[in-house]
Structures are given as C-alpha cells and as structure tokens.
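In the design runs reported in the main text, the only information available to the sequence generator was the tokenized backbone. The following block is the verbatim input for one such run; it is reproduced so that readers can re-run the procedure and compare outputs position by position.
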C-alpha cells in the first residue's frame, strides 16, 4: 500500500491544477461555532494544493469511529456530496484520501505506536484501496 500510495501521490502532485492556500486539516474537530463570529476554522496547517486534497482530513475523521469512516458507503457518500456541491473531481478526492490515509498510518509508526488492523487510518486506506478495483487507482463509482 505504501508503494501504491506513493505512486498515486506523485501522479496527483504532477497533475494538480488550481493550487491555492488550503487549511490542511479541515475536519470536524477544527470547525467551531463562535457565538459572536459564527463558524470558524481553527488550527490551519497552511498547505498549498488543489481543493481536492483538502477532503482527506475529513475522510480520516472522526478517528473514534473507524467502522463508520472506513465504510465504503460512507466514503462514497462523503465524496459524492462534497464533489457535487464544491465541483470537485471525485476520483482525485478518492486518490488523495488514499494517499493521505497511508501517510497518516505512517505518522502513527513514526510517533512510536505499533499499528495493527484496528488503526483508523489503515482501515480507511484498505477500504479505499478495495474501492479502486483493478483500474489503477481510478474511482469505481460511475456517477461520481
């Protein structure tokens, strides 16, 4: 999976379009409602890339519910909803999600944790990998 994620990451980086400043960790824990200022995104990482990259953190969360975040129906619904509403390329969102999930699993190892099949990032990476099928990382959902 690491080799495949590296290949997908390289391909996505080489073919990015419309790079812009992104939050880099936009997920439910980093979006808060302030009574006076409204909705706020906190703890930005300041990543530059295409918007499709930004969905990766959302796909990996909430980490406390790995059975939900790694459910193919949940992954597809999240990607379908965000892609249609934000005019994103769903295939690229899925591939970025896979590459980031594998990277997240590597971060666990770098931080000294022993990971096994119960690791949320690894579960998500495996679920997305199975969704690719044999089409070389292309999205399997015809309607996305």
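Verbatim output:
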């Amino acid at each position: 999976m690491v080799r495949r994620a590296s290949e997908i990451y390289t391909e996505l980086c080489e073919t990015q379009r419309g790079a812009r400043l992104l939050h880099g960790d936009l997920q439910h824990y980093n979006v808060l409602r302030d009574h006076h200022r409204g909705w706020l995104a906190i703890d930005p990482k300041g990543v530059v890339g295409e918007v499709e990259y930004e969905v990766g953190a959302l796909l990996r969360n909430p980490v406390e519910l790995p059975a939900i975040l790694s459910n193919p129906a949940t992954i597809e619904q999240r990607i379908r909803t965000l892609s249609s509403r934000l005019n994103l390329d769903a295939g690229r969102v899925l591939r970025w999600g896979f590459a980031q999930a594998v990277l997240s699993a590597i971060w666990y190892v770098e931080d000294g944790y022993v990971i096994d099949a119960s690791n949320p990032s690894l579960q998500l990476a495996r679920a997305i990998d199975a969704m690719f099928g044999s089409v070389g990382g292309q999205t399997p959902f015809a309607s996305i």
